[in-house]
Amino acid sequence: KQWYQRRVRDPDYRKSDCNHIFLNFVPCMVIHPMIVKEKVKQFIERYGKRLWKLRVLQAELKMKLRETADSPEQSFRFFVNTESGYSIDTNIYTAVEDPNSGLSKENLENLLHFDN
Asked: What's the Cα-to-Cα distance from 60 to each of 6, 8, 14, 89, 99, rounded to whole Å?
């Protein structure tokens, strides 16, 4: 955090813009995706001004979640972006594994879209 803040203040990096944060949570968590949505919203409300000053316009969170301890785990990607600093657009995608290749891809059919 401090390294990034020093870089933004450095004259060589002053024109840095449209920064992106990517967070990958490795362990599977037992929590509903909409609760994660609320926590992301609270985080943005708390640190939004600082992120805007650091010119962060987009964030992506990747995590595996279970709604209950017995339910199967699902991969989710949360995308948060703001172009103006006033309106926040947030999308949640479920990631599904392609049975032929074994690679995961976003399942756009199961897109959950919400506005803050």
From this structure: 23, 20, 23, 12, 25
* Residue pLDDT, tens place only, 26-48: 899 999 888 988 888 888 888 88
User: Are 107 and 96 contacting, i.e. CB atoms less than 8 angstroms apart?
Assistant: yes
Q: Say if CB 39 and CB 23 are below 8 A apart.
A: no
DSSP assignment of the chain equals -HHHHHHHHSGGGTT--SEEEEEEEEEEEE--HHHHHHHHHHHHHHHHHHHHHTTEEEEEEEEEEESSTTSPPEEEEEEEE-SSSS--EEEEEEEEE-TTT--EEEEEEEEEEEE-
CA pair distance 83, 81, nearest whole angstrom: 7
Give me the residue label for tokens 């919400």: 114
What is the pTM (predicted TM-score) of this model? 0.67
